[in-house]
Amino acid sequence: MKADRMLAVLLLLRVRERVRIAELAERLEVSERTVQRDVDALSTAGVPVYTERGRAGGVRMLPGFRTDVSGLTADEARALFVPVAGNAHGELGLDKALDSALRKVLSALPETHRPAAEHTGSRVLVDPDRWMSEAEDVPELERLRAAVFAERKLRISYRHSGRPYPEEYTVDPYGLVSKAGVWYLVADHEAAPVLLRAERIRAVEVTERPVCRRNVELGEVWETLRRRVQHQPERLRVRARMRAGRLDMARRIVGSRLSVPHPPPPEREWVEVELSCTALGAVRQLLQFGGDVEVLAPAEARAEMARAARELTALYEVD
C-alpha cells in the first residue's frame, strides 16, 4: 500500500541523513519511479523531503523535522523482542545498551502490544552459530566497533590464512558483519572491497585521515564480497563414492559444493557424489571421512588423495 511505503520512507529518513532512491526501491520492492512519486506526494502533503542528484544524491529530509510515525503493529512489536542467543552484543560492548533500549521501546509500545512482545522472548530464540564450532576469540572486536564509527581511515595489522606473520594495511571501513558467528571487517583497500576476518586482526589504529568510501552502503559491499566467496570459479569437479550413512554429515561440513547427481535407492550402501573444488588441494577435505569415501575421478584428484595418504602414513609411521 502507498501509505505503508510512505511511512517506511519517513522512518528511514528519521534515522538516516540520506537514502538513495535505488536503495528505497529495493527495500520497498517497487520501481525507482514509484519511489520518486511517493517522495513527491510526501512533499505535497507538507513533509519537507526532497531529492538531490549526483553521486552523493538521494532523498533527504530537512533537519529538525519531527512527526509521530512510530506506531507499531503487534507483529512488528514481537519482531523487536525475538532474542538472539550467543554474545554478539556483548562482544561489541553493547549488551547493556541493548537491554536499556528494549526497555525503552517496551515502555513506548501500545498497552495492547506489550504482553505479546514480552511473551515472544520465551517462545522464540535465534541462535546464529553453527553446530560443533567454538566461539572465536576476537580481542580487537570492541576496538573495531568503536573504530568503524570514528569515520577515519584505520591502520590494521592483519595475518592472512597460511602466513606466519601479519601485514600492515590502511583501510576505509564500512562496518562489521557477523556471519554464522564469525565476525568480519568490511572495508575498502585502495578503493577495492576487502573482507577481513576480525580474529586475524592483531592491532587497530584510528588515523587522523577521514574515511574515503565509494558511494555504496555496507549491505551492498557485503553482498558483493559474499557472492565472491560463495561463487568462486570452479576449477575442478571431483566424482567420488561415499557411504550413505556419512552423506548428511558431509553435506553439513562441505555445504552446497557437494551434490548427489543420481539419488540411489534407500538400501544402497554407497552413494555417488560430486564435489566442486576451486583448487586441486581442496579435495583433501574428503580425508576427514577416511575409508567412507573414495575419489573416482579425475585422475589428478585421485593422485592428490594418494599423495596426502602417503604423507599421513609417513607422519604416523611406527618404527
Plain-language structure description:
The chain starts with a helix and ends with a helix. By secondary structure, it is α+β, with helices and mostly antiparallel strands. The model has no long low-confidence stretch (mean pLDDT 81). Helix 4 runs parallel beside helix 7. It has helices at 2-15, 21-28, 32-44, 74-80, 88-91, 95-108, 114-120, 141-148, 218-230, 247-254, 299-316; strands spanning 49-52, 58-61, 152-158, 167-179, 182-189, 192-197, 201-210, 236-243, 258-259, 270-277, 293-297. The longest helix has 18 residues, at 299-316. Strands 6-5-4-3-7 form a five-stranded antiparallel β-sheet, sandwiched between helices.
Number of helices: 11
Structural class by sheet pairing and helices: alpha+beta
Termini separation: 78 Å
Point out poorly predicted stretches: none
Provide the gyration radius in Å. 26 Å
Helix content: 25-40%
Number of strands: 11
Described by the principal axes of the CA atoms, the overall outline is: globular
List the quaternary state of the chains: single chain
Mean pLDDT: 81
Strand residue percentage: 15-25%
Order of helices and strands: HHHEEHHHHHEEEEEHEHEEEH
How do the strands line up in the largest sheet?
Answer: 6-5-4-3-7
Major sheet, described briefly?
A: 5 strands, antiparallel
